[in-house]
Amino acid sequence: MQPGYIDEFTRSVRLGVATTALLVVDMQNASGSRRHGLGKMLAAQGRLADAEYRFARIEQLIVPNIARLARVFRDRHARVIYVTYGSNQPDHADAPVHLKSWLVATNNCAGTEEHEIVPALRPEPGELVLNKTTMGAFGSTGIDAHLKSMGIDTLVVTGVSTNNCVAMTAMEAADRQYGVALVSDATGTCSDEMQLAYEKTFRRLWGRVVTTDEVISELR
User: Fold this and answer.
1) Burial class of residue 119, CB neighbours in 10 A (0-12, 13-18, 19+)
2) Would you tell me the crossing angle of helices 192-202 and 167-175 to the nearest 10 degrees?
3) Is the dihedral of CA 159, 82, 137, 174 positive or negative?
4) Which of 41, 115, 200, 210 is most exposed by smallest CB count within 10 Å?
């Protein structure tokens, strides 16, 4: 059991249509599709079952819930922003050392099918899409300047993987004074253990952990 005294200091985050954006992180074929990238690699190795938790959660929970959130944000003329990750250079020369082998293995490079956002969540015309080469979006995309220009001070964060790119982006945002709400049923990683561990971490000083229904209810 965690002591509760830290929780008393966690920032209160309120969602308002005019100043809140939905951030969709790394929902790409490379690591979000059974037929591409990671899924294709594991299938060729006879190990696709190892990622069943990940892909089932993406297909059955994350994609439907992000789609619901995007509809609500668009209906209210609120911002929907996409972040992708992957190399900009065909030889992955711009990839950081700790990510390069993963990007190569999943064929994740700008211009490939793997790099594209999964079809069910494709951006609408005019929506901002930023590509990052680092785990966190604030390290390599210029997202901070975009958000400030749009008058955004609060982010609803969704996507994969919860304990990697989603985590880094959400924490970077909190460090830069943004209010952040992490959507528990619109994010995912490789196991319940990893998912719950990060949610427990994030709700202590970083921001809110909310459900899709809670976000929709609050925006309405």
Assistant:
1) exposed
2) 0
3) negative
4) 200
Q: How many CB atoms lie within 10 A of CB 29?
A: 24
CA distance 41 to 107: 10
- Angle, CA 174 vertex, CA 172 and CA 178 arms, to 5°: 115
Write out pLDDT tens, residues 115-170: 999 999 999 999 999 999 999 999 999 999 999 999 999 999 999 999 999 999 99
- Give the Cβ contact number of residue 130 at 10 Å: 16
| Cα 133–Cα 215–Cα 76 angle in degrees, nearest 5 | 90
Q: H or E segment at 85?
A: strand 79-85
What are 17-29's pLDDT values in tens digits?
A: 999 999 999 999 9
DSSP label of 88: S
pTM of the model: 0.96
Residue 211 CA to residue 220 CA, distance in Å, equals: 14
